[in-house]
Amino acid sequence: MDNIMNKIVEKISAQDIIKANSQAEAKEAERIKLEAEQYRLQLQELKANSEEYKKYLEEMRNDAKEYKAQLEGMRQDTKEYRQKLEESDTKIHDVGVQVYRNVQAIVEKGQQKDKEEFKELANKLEAIQVAVETKNNALMPLTIITMILVIADIVINVLRVLGIL
């Protein structure tokens, strides 16, 4: 075994070892350099993506602010519409009450007028009834007198026909 080692040592000199070490170190340095370049490229890509995401995030924030402002505007509009609706309901109610009172007043006036007309008619009927009753009472003596005169005339005419008169 020593023999084999000696042969290997003879074949491989210190310079060869240094050269092999240098080559190995150069390869390792090249591999590290390539790896570092890959990391640098990945880092640049991450930075670019980060910038892009920041832009998207900013746009989303702006959109959120706009939506929030629109929502607040809609809330204000809703409040205003509710107030207007309440005012409208109040006005409609007030107009309804006013119309009801006007109709009620007209109906009451019509009823009062009808009552007065009925009173007048009742008074007229009563007056007519009184007049008829009074006339009937006044007619009775007139009728009796007329009948007496008619009977007297008939008697006179009969007596004339008979020649007595």
Q: Could you walk me through the main structural features you see in this protein, from its secondary elements to its overall organization?
A:
The protein has helices at residues 2-11, 14-162. The protein is mainly alpha-helical and 165 residues long. The mean pLDDT is 84.
Q: Would you summarize the structure shown here?
A:
The chain is mainly α and 165 residues long. The protein has helices at residues 2-11, 14-162.
Q: What's the β-strand tally?
A: 0
* Residue fraction in strands: under 5%
What is the N-to-C order of secondary-structure elements (H for helix, E for strand)? HH
Count up the helices. 2
How would you describe the shape?
Answer: rod-shaped
* Cα-to-Cα separation, first versus last residue: 214 Å
Oligomerization status of the protein chains: single chain
Mean pLDDT: 84
Number of domains: 1
- What structural class do you assign from the helix and strand content? mainly alpha
- What share of the residues lie within helices? over 70%
> Which residue ranges are poorly predicted, with pLDDT under 50 across at least 5 consecutive positions?
none
Largest sheet: none
Radius of gyration: 68 Å
What is the secondary structure topology, with strand pairs?
Blueprint: H1 2-11, H2 14-162
Question: Key features?
Answer:
165 residues; 0% strand
